[in-house]
Each structure stands twice: as structure tokens, then as C-alpha cells.
Design goal:
The structure holds 2 protein chains of 2 kinds. Chain A is α/β, with parallel strands linked by helices. Chain A has 22 helices and 18 strands. The termini of chain A are far apart. Classes of the chains: A alpha/beta, B alpha/beta.
């Protein structure tokens, strides 16, 4: 088709060849008639003409050359998936997960480590979580919090990831949901979850709660049964405990490949040379996820241990904390309650500074003098172990005078518990010693306390928790940091007493967060006992410094100059002269 | 849902096509093919296309329908291997591709604001024609499930066709959602090309 058009003036005319609505204009011919320069028009048509010499000018109008790129994504056939496609068999019921009213979707984004454009696009083009869930007709017992969906999206696209949310924010639910979605999409077929032994039943329960259609098996029983479970079991999700790995090392055949291995409480492998760390690193796998509320308990080296599982060699212990923080930022997701759970009831701390009774003070003084004298006499032969023995002895005296049984802490605790019991509330009392808990149980018998510690057989522990929760006349649970620090949901209690202080603030946080977590019934009051002018006060200063270490790695805060405890500092608790060199206090 | 219907739904492929305008580089086209679960099957995108000054002047208000519909959209649809039951767009100018393909092409969203959202509101002095130049654009709007759609008036029959082909999807799928994915993917591809 050609179009001819002549403007009324004698100045110029033009013609176009082609189809303006079909294949487009191909050429434009311009004929200048009388004037060399055409007058400008409103639409700028004079621009090319103004440069035209007298005569005809041809302006090429070839269609643009369009370069394209093409990506075809792998599809998993239904018969390749380990879980049935819910939409082909389930009745249509409304999904429980939908975009919020402002249409904010939770999008899956490719991680920075993903290099190939095709891989990046595969994840960038996945539907938002809300669409995946509604498309597969999956249900949730509760609508997850937005930050939890962000956590699921974070894990979904990652082959190496640390979910390091503060305790109580639902790491378990986020991991289960990500596993669930990846199983449904066919991207996972075999998953191994490793957790501390006391938490196995908790994980089973949570899977049943958040992913009821996902078959889960626990690796247990005699060796023949376990061998079968490791090598031939068909359950898409298997749960093993760390302790079991030591026994089953030989059963983990090199060809036993897992699509995903998840380590719960992954601080268990912070010591890179430990047998546990070596075993989990040897498990053949495609994806590696670590879950922990305390990725750094004592020193940045803890994180190096976890990353040896995720990506061997990625971190070096020599890195400065700030540099390490930058390197791991794309692999670690950490949120704190203060930032994401603005509606969580407040957590209030009370420092119960007590003065030792006269009997305790005298016993304490004698023990300290004697201990310090003994260490001084040992000179260069004194080791950290010797110092620890003295510290533990003094801390026990701060709890109870071994001779008279006197305890200013107990007096204060008993008074507080009267109030707790009278108000119908429930309280946890933490100590690091079973002996202290036993003494408390005897002296606080009027509160009919329950106990949960290493001395309670594991098969009876669930029953203890059930009774504490259900029996109204059982307001008190005596609990050890070791047995009750992780995996328990005790948000129905409102009071936490730290009868003595742990070496590590992260462990104390874990203990507190058994109560202060999602579902907390109300404000949580944490009472931290501290015997004034004793070793406890000096240790408390050390704990505060450890908190600063953590902040340096997981925030933009300025790095603190004290990044770990040195032998000098430990020995300095008693003003002792010591050999040099760093130590691991919590070892 | 009957099993046969569910099976039919799972085999459906749906196309989403948009064009992103970049101030420096020009126009990027992106075409995403999804299955009924909104999972990606294929993605096709263009390198940036920048019309020269002569084309801008001479095509005037028909430049966008020409570039978006006849050039970019047509090229992308032609290159895909999966055959969708329909193509959705959030750019009115893409509707011009309907002249060249035998698929229903639907504009998603309110026609009054479609295409302006990602450009920060209606551009002053800019007009869009999706049919013959010098005629007002004519669209037929309708609701389908939870979505508001429009088709070019001269292809009003597409409305019934879309109703037949998308009924099982339109209730649970937000047809406007995939365009954000395409824009994100174009960003990724552009970064990778640098």
C-alpha cells in the first residue's frame, strides 16, 4: 500500500510505502518543491526536512530487528512427584492462604549465589507463595505471619541457607512449609532432617500439624530396621537425631543421596572437627539448610563450622566479623521478635540482685580464698579447667550454702512464687545443675513442682510437660538449661526465673524463649538472679560483651573490640597471671 | 471439581505478555507461559528495542501499537513452542497483535488505567491506538471470575472464547499478578546482559 499526502502549501509533499497497520511503513520519500527549508510544524515534522537538500530524500523505515532469548523450564511429571497433586483429586475447598488485602504477594527471589540466568529466571518466575498454595489446594492450620512466608520464600530458592530467626518465631514451621512446597513441586523427593534426640517427637508433631499429607518416618529401632530406613525407606521425609548418626555412620552408604539435608539446632556442628560435624558433612546431598537461633554462641568461628556444612571453605576463621557478616548476608536470614512481632506481648526483665546470707558469704569467702591460693601455687601449671572448677564451686555456693542450706536466692524466689501461684499463673525456674533443681524441688514442695532435666527419662518428659500445662495446681516447672533450652513450647507460662546464669547469653535467650514466643498468653516476666559481689557479677560483665559480638556480625553495628574471651580474661576473674592464647569458654 | 475437569485444567497453558519501557535502553518485551498452577513453562524476552527519531515522528501515535503489538508481541508469540489458550497483557498497545494471531488477546485490569501504572500515571500528550490510526480506541470490558478483562471491539467474539477457555482458572488466579514476574525477569535478564 502506498500513501500520498500533500500539504496545501507548495513547500513539500511526501509519500510512504508499506502498510501502516500491517507490516509497517517501509520507506518514506520526501520531495522538496519550492523551499529549501520547510516550516516547522507542531509535531516536529520539520526536523528531518530542515536538513534535506533540494530534491528527493529517502528515509529508511525498516522494521526493527528484534533479538530474542528463550528459556524453557523443566517440568516434573506427576508420576515423578512423591506427593499426589492435590488439585487432581481433592475437592475444591477455599485455600487458607491468600494475598493480604493490599495484594502484597510473597515472591520467591533467586539467591545471589545463583549464577546461571536460566536458574535465576526459574525462581524469579515462580508464582508467589500465595498462588502456589492456592493452586495446590494446600491448607494451613493458621495463617502464617508475613515474615514467616518471607522465610519460606527464602528457603525455597536456596541450596545453602541458614534460617537463624530468634527462638520462638517459627523456624520449624517455615522449614516444614518450604519442604512441603518443594515436595509438591517435585523439586524434592528425599529429605533428611537431623535434630537433637529430645526434639524428634516435636518435629513429628509439627509435620503432622503443618504438612499432614507429607509422610514422615523416624529412623529408629534395631540396626537392621535402621539400615532399611536409611537405604530403602520410601518416606520422603526422614528424621534422625544427632546421637544416632554416630552409631549409623556405617549405614550411610555413599550412594544414599538426599535432595535436602536440614540440620536443626545446627550449632551442634559449630566445632568443625567434631565427629558429628564430620558425619553430617559426609552425607551426600543437593541442598543444605541449617536452622538455629544462635548461629554465633561464643565466637565467629561457630559460624565457620556451620558453613563448612553448607559450603565448605566459604568462610575462614581468620575473617574479621564485619567481613564475615557481609559474606554470609545472602545465606542467612535472621529476624528478631522486636522487629517482626510487634504484637507479641512484651518481655520484661528484672535483675534480682541478692546479697548472700551471712552463712553463704562466709563459705564463699573461704572457698574463694582457698581456690585462688591453690591456683596461685600451681602457677604455670594452672589450666582453664582448674579455673572452671573454682568458678562452678563458687556459683553453687551462690545458690545454696552447702553446709547450712542457706540461700538468699531461694528466699527471694519463694516470695515471688507465692505471688505467681496466687494469681493462677505458671513459672519456669532454670538452673544449670540437677542438684540445684532437686534442692529447689525439696524446699519448694508446697508448690508441687514438676521437674524436667537430664535426670528425667526421655520417655517421661512429654508427660511432665502435659501435666504442667493441664494441671492447674502445678504452677512450677524446674528445668535445666541443658534439657529444656530448646524445642519446648511453653508459651502458656508467664514467668521465667534464671536461678543461676549460663555461660552464654544465647542459651539464656533460648530458655526464655520457651515462654516468650508466638502464642504467648501475655507479658513475660524474666527474673535474673545475681549474687552481688561474687563471681556471678563478674561473669555477667562477660556475658554482656558476648552480646556485642553477636551484634557485630548480624547488624551494622561497629565491631566491639572484645571479640572473644582470652585466657587472660578468664584468669582475670580472679586476678591470676596466666599463659596467653584464646580459649573456647563454652567447650 | 470433576476429575475430568481438573485434568483439563492442568493441561491449560496461558500466555502473559508485556512491554517494559526503559528510559535509556528502549523497549523490552517479555512473554511468560504458565500452566494452570501458574508455574512457568517458558519465558521469552527481547533485547531492548529503541525506535529511531524518524520512526518516532512518522509513526506518531501508532508507534506503540506498531512496536508493542506488531513487532514485539508478534515476534515473541511466534517464537514460543507451547501453545496457550489465550494471551493476557497489561498494555493496551499489545492488543494490536490480535490482528496477526489467531488467539484471543485480553487486556487485564481497568482499561482506563492499564499501561499507565508502571509508567507512573498517564503520560501527558501520549495517546494509544489499538486499531486504525485516527480512530478512538474501542474496547469491550467484562468480568471473568475475580478478574476484569477487555478485548478489542473488533474482536468482541474473544470475550465468549475467553469465558469458555478460562472459566476454570479465572476464579482462583489473579491474572494481573504474572506481569510483575515478567518485569522482574526482564530486570534479571538485563542485569545478566551487562
Amino acid at each position: 500500500m502506498s500513501v500520498d499526502h500533500e500539504r496545501g502549501s507548495p513547500a513539500w509533499c511526501w509519500s510512504a510505502a508499506g502498510d501502516p497497520l500491517g507490516a509497517g511503513l517501509r520507506t518514506l520519500s520526501v520531495y522538496a518543491k519550492a523551499m529549501e527549508v520547510a516550516p516547522a510544524t507542531d509535531d516536529g515534522m520539520a526536523v528531518p526536512l530542515s536538513l534535506a537538500p533540494r530534491g528527493a530524500v529517502k528515509v529508511p523505515l525498516a522494521p526493527p530487528r528484534i533479538k530474542t532469548r528463550h528459556f524453557v523450564f523443566p517440568q516434573v511429571a506427576d508420576d515423578q512427584k512423591v506427593l499426589p497433586d492435590a488439585q487432581s483429586s481433592a475437592p475444591p475447598v477455599p485455600p487458607t492462604l491468600s494475598a493480604s488485602h493490599d495484594q502484597r504477594f510473597t515472591r520467591i527471589r533467586p539467591p545471589g549465589e545463583m549464577i546461571k540466568l536460566e536458574d535465576r529466571l526459574y525462581y524469579a518466575l515462580q508464582p508467589p507463595l500465595e498462588t502456589i498454595v492456592s493452586g495446590q489446594l494446600l491448607h494451613f492450620p493458621f495463617h502464617p505471619f508475613p515474615y514467616q512466608l518471607e522465610g519460606v520464600a527464602f528457603l525455597y530458592a536456596r541450596y545453602s541457607a541458614v534460617l537463624a530467626d530468634e527462638m520462638g518465631l517459627g523456624k520449624t514451621m517455615q522449614a516444614i512449609t518450604a519442604i512441603r512446597l518443594l515436595l509438591h513441586s517435585g523439586e524434592l523427593r528425599r529429605v533428611l532432617l537431623i535434630c537433637p534426640k529430645p526434639l524428634v517427637t516435636n518435629w513429628q508433631r509439627e509435620f503432622h500439624h503443618w504438612a499432614p499429607e507429607v509422610p514422615v518416618s523416624v529412623i529408629e529401632g534395631d540396626q537392621a530396621k535402621r539400615r532399611w530406613q536409611w537405604q530403602l525407606g520410601e518416606s520422603p521425609v526422614r528424621i534422625a537425631n544427632y546421637e544416632l548418626l554416630h552409631r549409623d555412620r556405617e549405614l550411610l552408604a555413599p550412594d544414599t543421596h538426599f535432595d535436602l539435608v536440614v540440620l536443626d539446632e545446627s550449632q551442634r556442628i559449630k566445632n568443625r572437627s567434631s565427629t558429628t560435624a564430620q558425619i553430617v558433612r559426609s552425607i551426600p546431598r543437593s541442598r543444605s539448610w541449617a536452622l538455629t537461633g544462635t548461629p554465633v554462641e561464643n565466637s565467629p568461628e561457630d559460624l565457620v563450622g556451620i558453613f563448612e556444612f553448607l559450603s565448605p571453605g566459604f568462610l575462614s576463621p581468620n575473617l574479621k566479623p564485619r567481613r564475615m557478616g557481609r559474606l554470609v548476608s545472602d545465606y542467612i536470614l535472621r529476624r528478631t521478635k522486636d522487629r517482626v512481632l510487634t504484637e507479641l506481648p512484651p518481655k520484661m526483665f528484672r535483675d534480682a540482685d541478692v546479697t548472700l546470707t551471712a552463712e553463704q558469704r562466709e563459705t564463699y569467702r573461704l572457698a574463694e580464698d582457698e581456690g585462688v591460693l591453690r591456683l596461685s601455687k600451681m602457677g604455670e601449671a594452672a589450666t582453664i579447667q582448674h579455673v572452671f572448677e573454682l568458678v562452678l564451686r563458687l556459683k553453687q555456693i551462690c545458690n545454696f550454702d552447702p553446709a547450712s542450706g542457706a540461700s538468699s536466692k531461694l528466699e527471694r524466689l519463694a516470695a515471688d512464687l507465692e505471688e505467681v501461684a496466687a494469681s493462677g499463673q505458671k513459672a519456669l525456674v532454670f538452673s544449670q545443675w540437677v542438684g540445684t533443681l532437686d534442692e529447689l524441688r525439696r524446699r519448694l514442695a508446697r508448690f508441687r513442682p514438676l521437674a524436667y532435666h537430664g535426670g528425667v527419662p526421655s520417655h517421661r518428659r512429654d508427660e511432665v510437660i502435659r501435666r504442667f500445662k493441664e494441671e492447674a495446681d502445678r504452677p512450677l516447672l524446674l528445668i535445666s538449661y541443658g534439657a529444656g533450652g530448646v524445642g519446648l513450647n511453653l508459651q502458656f507460662a508467664r514467668y521465667v526465673f534464671l536461678f543461676d546464669r549460663w555461660w552464654n547469653p544465647a542459651v539464656e535467650d533460648q530458655a526464655i524463649n520457651r515462654v516468650h514466643r508466638i502464642g504467648a498468653a501475655g507479658p513475660v516476666t524474666v527474673t535474673r538472679f545475681l549474687a552481688l559481689a561474687t563471681i556471678e557479677e563478674r561473669i555477667n560483665q562477660v556475658l554482656e560483651e558476648k552480646r556485642e559480638i553477636f551484634d557485630t556480625i548480624f547488624s551494622d553495628a561497629e565491631p566491639h573490640k572484645h571479640l572473644g574471651l582470652t585466657r587472660h580474661e578468664i584468669f582475670g576473674l580472679f586476678q591470676l597471671k596466666t599463659p596467653a592464647g584464646p580459649i573456647d569458654l563454652a567447650a | 471439581m470433576a476429575k475430568a475437569e481438573a485434568g483439563e485444567r492442568t493441561s491449560i497453558t496461558l500466555g502473559f505478555l508485556t512491554v517494559v519501557e526503559h528510559e535509556q535502553h528502549g523497549f523490552f518485551g517479555g512473554y511468560l507461559l504458565l500452566n494452570a498452577s501458574a508455574r512457568p513453562l517458558e519465558f521469552h524476552c527481547t533485547a531492548p528495542i529503541k525506535p529511531n527519531r524518524a520512526q518516532e515522528i512518522l509513526y506518531g501515535p501508532t508507534l506503540r501499537p506498531y512496536l508493542y503489538g506488531e513487532q514485539i508481541a508478534h515476534t515473541l508469540i511466534s517464537k514460543s513452542t507451547a501453545k496457550p489458550v489465550a494471551v493476557c497483557t497489561d498494555e493496551p498497545a499489545v492488543l494490536a497483535v490480535r490482528e496477526l494471531v489467531s488467539l484471543p488477546v485480553a487486556l487485564v485490569g481497568d482499561p482506563a488505567s492499564a499501561g499507565d501504572q508502571q509508567r507512573g500515571g498517564p503520560a501527558a500528550g501520549r495517546s494509544v491506538r489499538i486499531d486504525a490510526a485516527h480512530q478512538s480506541p474501542r474496547l469491550v470490558s467484562f468480568e471473568l471470575g475475580r478478574n476484569r478483562l477487555a478485548v478489542a471491539a473488533q474482536y468482541e467474539g474473544d470475550r465468549d472464547e475467553l469465558g469458555r477457555r478460562l472459566t476454570s482458572l479465572a476464579d482462583h488466579l489473579d491474572l494481573a499478578e504474572p506481569f510483575e514476574r515478567i518485569r522482574g525477569a526482564i530486570d534479571e535478564a538485563q542485569r545478566a546482559g551487562k
